[in-house]
Amino acid sequence: MDRIPILRMGEFLLVTIQVDMHDQLALALQDDLSERISRTSARGVLLDISALDIVDSFIGRMISTISGLSKIMDAETVVVGMQPAVAITLVELGLTMPGVLTALDVERGMNLLRERVQTQ
Amino acid sequence: MTAASSGSHPVRTEQDVVLARQQVRKLAVSSGLRLVDQTKLVTAASELARNTVIYGGGGDMDWEVVEEGIRKGVRLVFRDEGPGIPDMKLAMTDGWTSGGGLGLGLTGARRLVDEFSLESAPGNGTRVTICKWS
User: Where is the STAS domain (chain A) (predicted)?
Assistant: First the structure.
């Protein structure tokens, strides 16, 4: 089965979703990421969704789950690069993803991750 | 209202949901929907196609590019021969789910489109029709 690559950058993990995900692929990413956080003791996850042209309730839930599970494994998740049309649609769909940290782009996301990890 | 073109797409597997999304995106672009409306229609289609697979046991998506005067639109019908919805009012409640979802599929999809209708009866499958205009 296809897998979404997880790259390691120092104490952070970087995930860039570049394909139109079917549901099993999204679930596999959740599993892979939790396993990688545990194995590498990563302090943060940067989830780049700039290539996603839709986020439906399933992918939205995956993002919330990744954020929640990383938190209880002592890592922060920042979601970056959400397209404006996707943001508008998500709000209208009724998915507000409480507790999920977001930043506009990768650079701001990395800065936010560093701040969050330092202040802990 | 007249149909400029039409077709059908199987919605039986998770992979079909992805392909249906891509098909709807093409239709939305060809109908002149602006980007936000394309995104809303594709998202609604994704929710409904997933429902068709998970709750309906698979079915089909009929599509139609429709014209009314100068405006164009995309009409989609998601139909299955599954168990149907016993309580339509409950199914249209935000946050209610009979499966493991968030309960936003039907209600969320309705908010994202211009026209929405749901027909279902226990044992007789489900048919959801949506339309988005340019």
Answer: 2-113
Q: Which domains does chain A have, with CATH numbers?
A: 6-118 (3.30.750.24)
Of A24, A56, A84, the CB nearest to B14: A24
pLDDT tens digits for range A29-45:
999 999 999 999 999 99
Measure the CA–CA gap between B37 and B114, rounded to whole angstroms.
10
- Cβ <8 Å between A92 and B18: no
* Chain B: residue whose CA lies nearest to A61: B102
Q: How many angstroms separate the CA atoms of B94 and B101, rounded? A: 11
Residues in chain B: 134
Q: What is the ipTM of this complex?
A: 0.91
B131 backbone dihedrals φ, ψ, rounded to 5°: -145, 140
Query: Whole-angstrom Cα distance, residue B41 to residue A42?
Result: 38
- What is the fold, at CATH topology level, of the domain defined by B2-133? Heat Shock Protein 90 (3.30.565)
**Alpha-carbon gap, residue A61 to B44, rounded angstroms:** 16
* B36·A85 Cβ contact <8 A: yes
